[in-house]
Amino acid sequence: MEKEGKEKRERKRKKEKKEERALEKGKGEGKEKEQEHLEEEKRKSEIADVIASLRRILDNPLTRYVLKYISKGDTLEKAIAIYAGTERNTCVRCQFHSFLLGTALKYGARKLDIDEREMIEYFKDRSVQRGLANVIRGIAEYGITKPQRLHAPFLVVWNYTKACNLKCKHCYANAGRIAEDELTTEERKRVVEELSDAGVAAISFSGGEPLMRKDFFEIAKLAASKYMFVSVATNGTLITKEVAEKMKECGVKYVEVSIDGPKEVHDAVRGVEGAFERAIEGVKNCKEAGIMTGIAMTVMRSNMKYVPEMVDLAEEIGADRFVAFNFIPVGAGAEAAKEDLSVEEREEVLRYLYERMLRGKIEVFCTAPEYARVALEEALGREGAKVPASHFGAFTYKAVALTDFIGGCGAGRLYCSIEHNGDIQPCVFMPLKVGNVLKDGFLNVWHHSNVLELLRDREKLKGACGSCEYKYVCGGCRSRAYAYYGDFLAPDPGCILAANEQGKHEKR
Ligand code: SF4
Ligand code: SF4
Question: Does residue 495 line the site of ligand 1, with CB under 6 A?
């Protein structure tokens, strides 16, 4: 608590300092600060130039024709693999396609100040190659759009089962017992085939508790064999050393374990004594097995004071990242709606998280899209400060303009979710069915759902989010708007910039 008080005072001091700086600028005093401001403006205009020239190159009919041509079949994947050096192919046509692609990528890298060798190294990962192919197909189909439309989602979160061994009070999935309409193992294989054919780059198994199903390993292995990045969101209690080893063997690359506070708090939230120790063991076992790990904390009124302690814990046990989940009152969470933070509390948590991210010991993310707005405000004038523009990635300032194209709420745009029975939703927190993978076809739903179409258009946002200067980099949490107002285009009631609109939109 003493530590917290100290940090609060520190934040207050910084805020005052920032206000002082603004005042100085206004009065024409503090030439150094003024210079800093001018440099910032210059950098912003350089970035705008970069985007404009990339648009000129990529967003013209000839380039799109070429991209469409290369995008057919698996030609594009081959061209990327040859460029990255993971495939040797002597076919002259493939070499030519690879040359065309390489020239465009080299140009883009130069403009964005990215080292080409580092970029090639990054592209050696086959799931990254899938992601790049997806972006190129998106540009071929739609041109450059803001936000960028993709041929398929980058990421699909699969609520793999309703079964769970814990009784969490905030569970969005209302999980517990296995559901009667859960897909069979054979049907699950078809789901993976559909996602793979669509070009999805990453799949995250969630739940319920995904490890409760015996076929988890078989299906995860199948997904990994298709070169998708496979991750698992779990309560961690079932991850023994053997299970961690088995996950590693199956190709699981990242495991995110939910821990909501110190022992007593976590066990109370999760409804099971001993859940905390087993979750910590789970993280350690994954680390030992060589799997990247993260700690996920659902931040609520009753546990927000433990956020600093939990980031410390994540650092101490060597987790690779800390992710603060934005509590949204859906599922079992609807019963605990009073646990939702006030806009001021959320703002305080977000600023704290960003300060921890800047310290750089560990990656610190938050699923509240307002995190990007807070980061942009805080990063101003701080050399090398990265800006987290999605739930899982941060950009250097030089590449920050890209955040307008790919940042903010990804629901129905960069990502969607699948339920235990194959139903497709824009987001795990938005219980709104837009189709079913096996009955309607995954890509068919992705390309033709009206709901997803609306979610991709930030011009359709209402109220404070619609007129906000951060609507591309943030866009508000669409699930939160849906949970509170039954309207996924309404302003995000969790944002301080939308606070004065509370009461203007009818609550559900
Ligand atoms: S008003 Fe909406 S778009 Fe703007 S920062 Fe807040 S949540 Fe994001
Ligand atoms: S609706 Fe958007 S911001 Fe909210 S949890 Fe889903 S993806 Fe994240």
Answer: yes
pLDDT tens-digit readout, 21-76: 555 555 555 666 676 666 666 666 766 676 676 677 667 777 778 788 888 878 88
Which ligand sits closest to the CA of 172?
2
User: In the predicted model, what is the mean pLDDT of the chain?
Assistant: 86
Ligand 2 atom with minimal separation from the 476 CA: 3
What Cα–Cα distance (Å) separates residue 72 from each residue in 75, 86, 133, 136, 195? 6, 20, 11, 11, 17
Please tell me the distance between residue 503's alpha carbon and the centre of ligand 1 in angstroms. 17
CA distances from 403 to 147, 387, 475, 498 (A): 9, 9, 12, 21
Output the pLDDT for position 397.
60
Q: For ligand 2, pick from 206, 430, 471 the residue to mutate: most ligand atoms within 8 Å of CB.
A: 430
Mutate to test the pocket of ligand 2, among 330, 429, 474 (most ligand atoms within 8 A of CB): 429
Pocket lining for ligand 2, CB < 6 angstroms? 367, 369, 391, 409-411, 427, 429-430, 477-479
Say how many Å lie between the CA of residue 387 and the centre of ligand 1: 16
Low-confidence ranges of the chain (pLDDT < 70): 1-33, 35-44, 46-48, 50-51, 53-54, 57-58, 111-113, 170, 172-175, 332-333, 389-401, 502-508
481 lines ligand 1 (CB under 6 A): no
Residue range 462-474, pLDDT digits in tens: 999 999 999 998 9
Element (H, E) at 417: strand 415-418
Three-class DSSP category at 127:
helix
Evaluate the CA torsion angle 452, 48, 369, 360 in order and state its sign: positive
> 0.85 exceeded by the pTM?
yes
Q: Is 203 helix (H, G, I), strand (E, B) or coil?
A: strand
130 alpha carbon, distance to own chain's centre? 17
Measured by CA distance, the residue closest to atom 2 of ligand 1 is: 465
Q: Which residues of 133-151 are buried (b: 16+ CB within 10 A; e: fewer)?
A: bbbbbbbbbebbeebbbbb
